[in-house]
Structure to design on (643 residues):
């Protein structure tokens, strides 16, 4: 009985593995008589490792894959199970074992990745960062938004939308996230210098979760009846805040803006409930990741940092910005 | 041979053996020494954590706070060594003490106040996570002395230090469970608490100890993690409690209490680790990993029921 069940376990595993499209000749069932060596043929394999599963990364993958198709390399992405260092390190370690040629990481942590990036580099794998940097590691390059600068850009656009005065509440998904802290730093500094009549009355941690955004926004509106604007430095804040404002009949009366061009945020801009959003150039991050990894493989030096910039998306350019953004990457 | 196959661990052991053999044959990268080193180290942390929660499951309890305790004890240990300037040995002891103390709070509430273990430890999961945020404001503690980090992340020859710690801890747990009165009492409490109490076992004290051990093992992982990630990280360990519990269940531990072995728990953690490694080596999308692990957990629980029926007959 037990043996049978043991076999079931294995059979189920084998089945699940077999269900996958076999991307490599070596995983075909007709296993060659001699075990195939790790696929070290002409085409290089580059892998994108995000912080975790999130639709934010989709344009990155698209840019990564489009550039890979252009240059004739193989592109993949492998997601850690949680947005945490242990899971990301685990994925990186497993990729080292697979002998891929290059890895682009959206670093979930800095110090925690030092050892694994060194291990990858020692194994001859080229490692760069996209979207989120890891300056303490041996990663060759960071391709992404200069976040403090982006925070200033956001503050400037917000001040204009607010008429340079009034109360603003800030939403931030995770108070420990360095990229968000940088954005907030830039945001706060710009307002202090250029719009002293705008006061930040609250900074709420939304923990990156949609349900928490709702709760916090409801409480914010109760606590600050004169609030003139809500600004989210992380992606999940704007859609949640928009639904709360709508629910309370304050949509369009309170200025709502923030980072990232999630589909719900863009829909809000079209509907007029969201004033503007700051879109990061995620497609470009993916595209440049391939180009820079190829450079690294060819032995060319890489710049330490490449600022991909941001785009302010309003009702005027909401339909066109994405195409315009990709126009030069072909 | 038959006796070997009749053991609780036979199912998971066999599954692991076949899986490892298939991977070694099919994917040359799997059997490279570099990969085996990395996988064994990945497994060690989960296995230590699983051994801790295993004590509470044996008493028909559960400990959901272990993931948060990993984080909290790491933070306290790191703070003691860095900001408070305490000698490393004492700093590490402080970390362990925090784990054991909060484990004792769990155990006390379960054993003496009679609150359901699920609720007590669910609360503690949140309390410990909250304490981490209050203490660190969400930032990692990075200024741990370099020597301590290196020692905690050291290797002995080709074997990762964490794996050695696991082996020592596992041996100790095995001896405790199989060869002491405390061990027999632990199984007895989980098997039939009333009967255990009637035969003179101090069931409350036994339960309390189980939760203290669980907290202590979590703290051990928290301290080892300082080495692995060169800092005590505020958000570490989230979701890890489920990995630990899953490892124990896959290894044949009964959630009803009273049944399970140290070897089974380690095999369970190893099977999970090898599957995760194998899926990446096989270039299976990350999205699939969770599904596979989920199926294995349910299959393991089914196995437990089938086995229970078999014994009753």
């Amino acid at each position: 009985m037990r043996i049978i069940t043991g076999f079931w376990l294995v059979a189920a595993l084998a089945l699940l593995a077999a269900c996958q499209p076999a991307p490599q000749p070596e995983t075909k069932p007709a296993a060659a008589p001699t075990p195939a060596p790790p696929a070290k043929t002409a085409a290089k394999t580059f892998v994108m490792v995000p912080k975790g599963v999130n639709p934010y990364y989709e344009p990155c993958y698209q840019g990564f894959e489009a550039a890979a198709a252009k240059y004739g390399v193989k592109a993949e992405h492998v997601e850690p199970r949680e947005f945490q260092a242990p899971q990301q390190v685990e994925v990186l370690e497993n990729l080292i074992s697979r002998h891929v040629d290059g890895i682009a990481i959206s670093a979930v942590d800095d110090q925690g990745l030092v050892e694994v990036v060194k291990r990858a580099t020692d194994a001859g794998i080229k490692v760069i960062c996209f979207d989120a940097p890891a300056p303490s590691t041996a990663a060759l390059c960071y391709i992404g938004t200069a976040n403090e600068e982006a925070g200033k850009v956001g503050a400037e656009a917000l001040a204009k939308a607010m008429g340079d005065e009034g109360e603003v509440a800030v939403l931030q998904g995770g108070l420990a996230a360095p990229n968000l802290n940088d954005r907030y730093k830039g945001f706060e500094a710009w307002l202090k210098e250029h719009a002293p009549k705008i006061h930040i009355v609250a900074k709420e941690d939304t923990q990156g979760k949609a349900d928490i955004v709702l709760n916090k926004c409801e409480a914010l509106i109760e606590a600050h009846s004169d609030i003139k604007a809500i600004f989210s430095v992380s992606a999940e804040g704007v859609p949640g805040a928009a639904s709360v404002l709508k629910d309370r009949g304050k949509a369009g009366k309170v200025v709502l803006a923030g980072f990232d061009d999630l589909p719900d945020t863009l829909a809000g801009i079209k509907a007029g409930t969201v004033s503007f959003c700051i879109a990061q150039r995620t497609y470009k991050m993916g595209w440049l990741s391939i180009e820079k990894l190829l450079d690294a493989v060819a032995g060319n030096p890489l710049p330490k940092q490449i600022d991909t910039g941001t785009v302010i998306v309003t009702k005027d350019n909401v339909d066109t910005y994405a195409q315009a953004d990709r126009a030069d990457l072909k | 041979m038959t006796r070997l196959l009749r053991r609780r661990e036979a199912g998971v052991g066999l599954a692991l053996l076949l899986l490892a053999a298939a991977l070694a044959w099919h994917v040359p990268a799997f059997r490279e020494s570099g990969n085996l080193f990395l996988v064994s180290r990945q497994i060690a942390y989960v296995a230590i954590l699983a051994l801790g929660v295993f004590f509470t499951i044996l008493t028909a309890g559960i400990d959901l706070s272990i993931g948060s305790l990993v984080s909290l004890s790491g933070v306290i240990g790191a703070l003691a060594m860095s900001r408070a300037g305490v000698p490393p040995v004492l700093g590490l002891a402080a970390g362990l003490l925090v784990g054991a103390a909060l484990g004792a709070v769990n155990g006390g509430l379960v054993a003496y106040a009679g609150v359901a273990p699920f609720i007590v430890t669910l609360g503690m999961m949140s309390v410990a996570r909250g304490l981490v945020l209050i203490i660190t404001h969400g930032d990692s503690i990075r200024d741990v002395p370099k020597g301590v980090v290196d020692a905690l992340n050291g290797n002995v020859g080709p074997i990762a230090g964490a794996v050695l710690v696991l082996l020592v801890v596992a041996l100790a747990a095995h001896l405790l469970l199989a060869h002491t009165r405390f061990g027999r009492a632990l199984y007895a409490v989980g098997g039939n608490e009333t009967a255990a109490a009637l035969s003179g076992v101090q069931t409350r004290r036994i339960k309390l100890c189980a939760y203290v051990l669980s907290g202590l093992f979590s703290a051990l992982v928290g301290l080892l993690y300082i080495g692995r990630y060169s800092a005590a990280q505020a958000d570490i360990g989230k979701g890890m409690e489920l990995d630990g519990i899953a490892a124990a269940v896959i290894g044949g531990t009964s959630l009803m209490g009273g049944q399970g072995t140290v070897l089974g728990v380690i095999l369970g953690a190893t099977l999970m680790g090898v599957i995760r490694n194998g899926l990446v080596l096989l270039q299976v999308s990350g999205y699939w990993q969770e599904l596979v692990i989920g199926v294995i957990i349910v299959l393991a629980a089914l196995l437990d029921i089938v086995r229970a029926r078999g014994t009753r007959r």
Observations:
- Chain A has two domains: 41-145+282-309, 147-280.
- DSSP finds eleven helices and twelve strands in chain A.
- Residues 2-19 of chain A form the longest helix (18 residues).
